């Protein structure tokens, strides 16, 4: 019945008269024919393509605006199969990982409304057609991971609205056209892993919004144009793996937003600019395999946020300064001409990080290995390579706790204990003439050939002395700090406390003091995995702490090392709508994560407080929905490994002082799952758990999609849509007007400014997202794009729109509903 109504609606609202003459088929019929003739939907019922299951979206008049394919197309499928001249209104063409072959036809220019062209990860060959420049509405052009050849057409400069241009991982040749400088709105430009030659065009300095520029792994020559240093918001600059020469322009210090600077594998020469010290946000600096000489400016080691520094295979001389930023976790200075002793502060980094990797091999470092009295602590994340230097002295005992160490080819002396040999193998000490040990490849410690008794006689007193020392030291420390038991216990259990993006001076004790040992009065929210606390640190900065429930904490501890690797990966995740993780503490009894603090608290809190909820006007609410969709789309589709959030709730969405939304806690669940993947443990928060989890154990991205739907409804309704969740798709929906469901605390939305229209789109998507069948839910990428697709104005009064009409996507079509 409703299907017939729908059909009538479509026929009535079709802009062209329906012709019965077979000779002049209507535009809508031509669209249908184009789909059929493509052969892409073989085995899928598209006889009523606007409503059949599939991936086609139509506008209100029934004309196709969005084609979304993420399955493997029939063998031999090409873009030439699709008659573009029949699809004049197409806004988004998304064909991802579908083994699409052949070239991009010049007829693509017929799609004058095309805004999103995503053809990533296919087998496309041939040239990029110069007609791409006719697509003047294009915002995103993703042709990465194909086998495209030829040059980048200079006509691309005519697609002047482009904000994301991804052509990486193809076989493109030729030079980078200077016309690319006309794309003033570019935010992301990725041309890496091609065979481009020539120089970097100086016009690239014109991109005022560019935050990601990657030209790495090409054959670019010449110098780094100083105009690149004019990019005000650039965050990632990767031009490694080319043939660039000359110096790093001193203007580099102007790009103060830079977080990653990758210049490795080029032919850059000294001097190394002192201005690098202005890049206080820098987290990764890679300059390996270049021709740098002379001293490394000591300010490089003092950049407060620097985590990774790769200086390997240059000709740097001089020594490493004694002052080193506590944020450093990766240092490769191997194969240089560095001298002097290894600074104590470099070893002291093990007090700040669980995971630490240092390679100083093939230099001329001398002096002894710094000795530390660190007591029994977790050092299993530490790897050091000190081989091929001129280090002297004996081997300090604490090194035995490292994950790995290489001391070969130095001038060390004394015994190499059996324990050392057992842990690291004999290679650890080879090439040290005066090192002895119980191994055929080492000199035996003949002069120390004592019986076991004699050995004990000597070792026992020193052992007792050592224990006494440790006890005294611990007592001394305990007295110095107020909360004695806690600190001692933490230390003797080997807690891990890691903090980054910080000056390193914040300590575990600061956190305990600031929250009075997690006193309930600092608690600002509770979620499926733990509670969130607000902590004002001694230096005046406020952070948010997520303290995991003790059962969760125990699992993290059990995972330990694999967890450490994962958290390193999480730290790399950058998205403007994802709250930055600042650090964490891992301990049997207490496990917490440290996040940026968001002034306005959780979305749940704002919605449940009448004054705050009134501040969160319709526009802001729609922005919240948009931003959460983008953040989830990023986690699901743009990370190296898709990340399922698993706890998307209004409690877990935080708002800053502008009421802009941020998503924290991404991926927490993923670690937990490594261990419990075979268990039926329903995680997440009650009221947000996808129904299929009641009968399957498989958690997919579609569970997040469901949660997103609930969150979007809750944001619009102002309260949890509890009673609606079970009924809406199963029973016949009551004929209520949608306005009955809106948050009454806000004035009803206006049609003139497009807010009413955006609410209808958001609600339509939200309903699709809470579909009980996970396969009928859209992907987050789809949702995030659909929220942005421009739509015609409402044709009926907002107040008259019924819930059922939105459910059946009769106002705006956003996704195909399954039966
Ligand atoms: C295809 O779907 C339409 C409705 O969308 C239905 O009427 C038709 O019977 C279906 N055809 C097949 C072969 O399933
Ligand atoms: C594509 O469609 C147009 C009408 O929109 C038609 O004239 C043309 O012949 C079609 N092309 C092919 C190759 O089928
Ligand atoms: C496509 O563009 C034309 C003008 O080129 C415009 O009239 C039409 O409304 C657009 N269609 C959509 C769906 O935006
Ligand atoms: C691409 O598709 C193949 C199967 O066709 C699948 O195994 C693979 O995971 C997909 N890759 C991505 C990135 O989705
Ligand atoms: C592309 O644009 C140019 C100039 O505006 C025009 O001459 C040409 O016909 C267009 N090509 C197509 C295929 O529309
Ligand atoms: C690009 O735009 C310029 C003017 O804006 C125009 O003269 C030229 O024909 C266009 N080129 C293409 C290929 O559309
Ligand atoms: C782009 O940069 C070049 C030089 O780098 C400059 O001459 C030109 O005016 C800039 N173009 C725009 C549109 O700003
Ligand atoms: C850029 O850096 C140079 C040299 O470091 C400096 O003289 C100049 O003022 C800076 N320009 C801007 C816009 O900051
Ligand atoms: C690097 O530059 C030097 C001169 O600065 C040159 O002699 C050398 O051949 C270059 N190496 C490469 C690999 O281009
Ligand atoms: C340490 O560095 C040397 C030389 O760079 C290398 O040969 C050796 O394999 C490294 N050791 C480890 C354990 O990686
Ligand atoms: C030396 O090593 C052998 C086996 O590798 C072992 O049996 C022996 O007990 C060791 N001797 C000493 C003194 O540790
Ligand atoms: C060590 O001393 C014992 C006797 O105390 C002797 O039997 C043994 O051969 C000696 N080992 C070596 C390697 O000199």
UniProtKB/TrEMBL annotation:
PROSITE patterns: PROTEIN_KINASE_ATP, PROTEIN_KINASE_DOM, PROTEIN_KINASE_TYR. It is an enzyme of class 2 (transferase). GO terms for cellular component: plasma membrane. SMART domains: LRR_TYP (SM00369). The keyword Manganese does not apply. It is found in: Cell membrane; Membrane; Secreted, Cell wall. GO terms for molecular function: ATP binding; protein serine/threonine kinase activity. Residues 518-794 form the Protein kinase domain. ATP binds at residue 546. Residues 1-22 form the signal peptide. It is a single-pass type I membrane protein. It catalyses: L-threonyl-[protein] + ATP = O-phospho-L-threonyl-[protein] + ADP + H(+); L-seryl-[protein] + ATP = O-phospho-L-seryl-[protein] + ADP + H(+). Keywords: ATP-binding, Cell membrane, Cell wall, Glycoprotein, Kinase, Leucine-rich repeat, Membrane, Nucleotide-binding, Phosphoprotein, Receptor, Repeat, Secreted, Serine/threonine-protein kinase, Signal, Transferase, Transmembrane, Transmembrane helix. The chain crosses the membrane at residues 458-477. Its EC number is 2.7.11.1. It comes from the Eukaryota. Belongs to the polygalacturonase-inhibiting protein family. This is non-specific serine/threonine protein kinase. It comes from Cucurbita maxima (Pumpkin). The gene is LOC111489870.
């Amino acid at each position: 019945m409703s299907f017939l109504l729908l059909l009538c609606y479509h026929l009535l609202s079709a802009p062209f008269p329906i012709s019965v003459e077979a000779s002049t088929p209507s535009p809508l019929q031509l669209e249908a024919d184009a789909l059929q003739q493509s052969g892409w939907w073989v085995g899928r019922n598209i006889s009523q393509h606007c409503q059949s299951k599939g991936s086609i979206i139509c506008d209100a008049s029934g004309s196709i605006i969005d084609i979304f394919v993420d399955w493997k197309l029939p063998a031999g499928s090409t873009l030439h199969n699709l008659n573009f001249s029949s699809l004049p209104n197409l806004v988004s063409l998304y064909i991802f990982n579908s083994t699409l072959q052949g070239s991009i036809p010049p007829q693509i220019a017929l799609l004058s409304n095309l805004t999103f062209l995503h053809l990533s990860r296919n087998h496309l060959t041939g040239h990029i057609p110069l007609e791409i420049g006719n697509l003047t509405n294009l915002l995103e052009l993703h042709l990465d991971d194909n086998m495209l050849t030829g040059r980048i057409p200079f006509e691309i400069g005519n697609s002047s609205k482009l904000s994301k241009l991804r052509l990486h991982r193809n076989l493109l040749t030729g030079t980078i056209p200077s016309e690319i400088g006309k794309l003033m709105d570019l935010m992301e430009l990725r041309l890496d892993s091609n065979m481009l030659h020539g120089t970097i065009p100086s016009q690239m300095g014109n991109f005022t919004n560019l935050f990601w520029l990657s030209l790495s792994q090409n054959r670019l020559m010449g110098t780094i144009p100083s105009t690149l240093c004019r990019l005000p918001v650039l965050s990632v600059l990767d031009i490694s793996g080319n043939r660039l020469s000359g110096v790093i322009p001193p203007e580099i210090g102007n790009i103060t937003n830079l977080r990653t600077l990758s210049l490795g594998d080029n032919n850059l020469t000294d001097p190394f600019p002192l201005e690098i010290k202005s890049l206080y946000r820098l987290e990764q600096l890679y300059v390996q395999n270049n021709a740098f000489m002379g001293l490394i400016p000591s300010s490089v080691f003092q950049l407060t946020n620097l985590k990774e520094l790769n200086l390997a295979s240059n000709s740097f001389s001089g020594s490493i300064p004694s002052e080193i930023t506590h944020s450093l976790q990766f240092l490769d200075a191997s194969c240089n001409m560095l001298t002097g002793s290894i600074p104590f502060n470099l070893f002291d980094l093990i007090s700040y990080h669980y995971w630490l990797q240092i390679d100083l091999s093939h230099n001329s470092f001398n002096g002894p290995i710094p000795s530390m009295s660190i007591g029994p602590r977790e050092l299993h994340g530490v790897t050091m390579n000190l081989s091929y230097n001129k280090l002297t002295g004996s081997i300090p005992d604490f090194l035995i706790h490292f994950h790995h160490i290489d001391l070969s080819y130095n001038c060390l002396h004394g015994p190499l204990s059996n324990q050392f040999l057992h842990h690291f193998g004999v290679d650890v000490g080879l090439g040290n003439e005066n090192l002895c040990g119980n191994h055929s490849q080492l000199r035996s410690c003949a002069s120390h050939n004592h019986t076991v008794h004699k050995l004990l006689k000597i070792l026992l007193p020193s052992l007792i002395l050592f224990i006494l020392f440790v006890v005294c030291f611990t007592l001394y420390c305990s007295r110095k700090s107020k909360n004695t038991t806690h600190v001692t216990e933490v230390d003797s259990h080997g807690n891990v406390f890691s903090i980054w993006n910080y000056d390193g001076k914040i300590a575990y004790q600061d956190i305990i003091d600031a929250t009075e040992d997690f006193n309930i009065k600092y608690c600002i929210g509770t979620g499926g995995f733990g509670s969130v606390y607000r902590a004002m640190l001694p230096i005046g900065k406020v952070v948010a702490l997520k303290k995991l429930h003790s059962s969760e904490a125990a699992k993290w501890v059990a995972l330990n090392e694999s967890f450490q690797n994962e958290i390193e990966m999480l730290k790399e995740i950058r998205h403007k709508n994802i709250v930055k993780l600042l650090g964490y503490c891992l301990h049997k009894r207490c496990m917490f994560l440290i996040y940026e603090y968001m002034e306005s608290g959780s979305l749940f809190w704002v919605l449940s407080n009448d004054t705050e909820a009134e501040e969160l006007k319709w526009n802001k609410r729609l922005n919240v929905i948009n931003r959460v969709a983008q953040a989830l789309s990023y986690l699901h589709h743009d990370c190296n490994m898709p990340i399922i959030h698993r706890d998307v709730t209004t409690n877990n969405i935080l708002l800053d002082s502008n009421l802009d939304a941020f998503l924290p806690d991404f991926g927490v669940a993923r670690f937990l799952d490594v261990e419990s993947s075979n268990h039926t443990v329903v995680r997440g928060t009650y009221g947000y758990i996808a129904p299929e989890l009641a009968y399957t154990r498989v958690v997919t991205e579609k569970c997040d999609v469901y949660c997103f739907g609930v969150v979007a409804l809750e944001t619009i309704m102002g309260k949890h849509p509890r009673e609606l969740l079970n009924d809406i798709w199963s029973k016949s929906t009551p004929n209520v007007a949608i306005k009955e469901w809106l948050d009454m605390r806000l004035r009803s939305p206006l049609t003139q400014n497009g807010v009413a229209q955006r609410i209808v789109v958001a609600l339509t998507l939200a309903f699709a997202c809470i579909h009980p069948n996970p396969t009928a839910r859209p992907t987050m990428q789809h949702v995030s794009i659909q929220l942005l697709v421009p739509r015609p104005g409402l044709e009926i009064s907002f107040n008259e729109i019924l819930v059922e009409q939105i459910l059946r996507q009769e106002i705006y079509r956003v996704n195909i509903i399954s039966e």
